[in-house]
Design brief:
The structure holds two protein chains of two kinds. Chain A is mainly α. Chain A has one helix and no strands. Classes of the chains: A mainly alpha, B mainly alpha.
């Protein structure tokens, strides 16, 4: 009887632990996806900014 | 009865190991994600500061406050800083496969420092001092992130 209770308790703890891990993993994944989108946006903006700085660095006299 | 106790002991030990392993997995997952997110936030802040610097300098130049030679020289340095920021941004995007983020960040700090020195040599009006303050803010963000990464992102 006792061993059965221990088995149930152990199984329940592992189930809760696994569910917590899955939830946290999902939250981390969502943050990563948001971060990836932000990094891609920054890269695109930086390309435009670099092109502008390059143009201004060789700007001809007025 | 003794066998029964031993079985219970073995079982509880196994459960403890499984829970410990889960704890370690969760901890490392969260720590890694937090560091990458911190780097993304820093990269965004540095970009915003550099964009404000570029727009501010351009406005000052168009208002006739900056001679064209200094405008060209400034933009040459700004392009270097923007390229360094882009390289850092790419290194963060490749995280954790890449270990280059700290190295790219060091180059970015160098480029921002050079930009600050360059601007400090200009005869600055009050609005231009504001521009310098923004570069300093970007530099502070980069330096503090570099310290927190500790060379092993």
């Amino acid at each position: 009887m006792t061993i059965l209770l221990w088995a149930q308790l152990g199984a329940e703890l592992v189930r809760i632990g696994s569910a917590s891990y899955a939830t946290i993993r999902q939250a981390v994944r969502a943050t990563d996806d948001g971060d990836d989108a932000q990094l891609a946006r920054l890269d695109k903006l930086l390309v435009e900014r670099i092109a502008q700085a390059d143009r201004e660095a060789i700007r001809p006299d007025a | 009865m003794r066998d029964h106790r031993e079985a219970v002991g073995r079982w509880s030990l196994s459960v403890t190991w499984v829970l410990l392993a889960l704890g370690v997995m969760i901890g490392s997952e969260v720590a890694c994600a937090a560091r990458r997110h911190q780097a993304v936030v820093a990269s965004s802040a540095i970009y915003e500061a550099l964009a404000a610097v570029q727009d501010g300098e351009m406005a000052a130049f168009e208002a006739g406050a900056i001679p064209i030679e200094q405008h060209r020289a400034f933009n040459a340095d700004l392009a270097v800083a923007l390229r360094a920021e882009r390289a850092f941004n790419s290194a963060v995007a490749a995280w954790p496969a890449s270990t280059d983020a700290a190295a790219e960040l060091a180059k970015l700090v160098g480029a921002l420092t050079r930009l600050t020195q360059h601007l400090a040599a200009l005869p600055l009006s009050e609005p231009q001092r504001v521009i310098l303050g923004k570069i300093d803010a970007a530099l502070t963000v980069a330096v503090s992130l570099a310290a927190s990464l500790g060379g092993t992102p």
